[in-house]
Amino acid sequence: MFYPNSRLKPQAIPQNPKKSRCKMAIPLYDLTVASYLQTIGAIENVLTKGLAFAQEKGKDPADLVAARLYEDMLPLSFQIASVAHHSLNAINGVKAGLFAPPGKTPPHTYADLQEILATTRKGLEAFTPEEVNALENADVVFEVRDLKLPFTGQGFLLSFSLPNFYFHAATAYDILRANGVPLGKRDFLGQMRMKGM
Known about the structure:
The protein is 55% helix and 7% strand.
């Protein structure tokens, strides 16, 4: 998420105009949707393990939903909602030409968080490679309050959407791990795209 009061100011990164008109060597779909799906599948599994841990230890899953990595950070519920917002909603935002922050997250149960990820995965699976690859040079504006930042579809998805997506996915993992859920790096990696698969 971009914070307008941050000391970090958005900066334009110089681009070679010839390169910006070239087709990407790796399709945009593979860089975005395929990567989103890998990590969403992993976080779905992480949530499944979190629920099993709570049940085994006699803990209320609602405590995990409200858990934070640090007191001034947002809870697990926000992290999961943001995983959806910076993947499925990011693609839809590029298609619409406008993307905005997720806003206030409504109260969620643990089952709600699992449903958010399942719905997001199904939405992403519905996109075709051709549909997403066609967004490479689309115009999209990131808008927060009165600030508007212009991007191409490729620039937005690779420099804004993906970093935010991984930040929130990793934070969700870290919250559950910090609360005792037995997780390892392999749980975060998910189903890797190995040769022949």
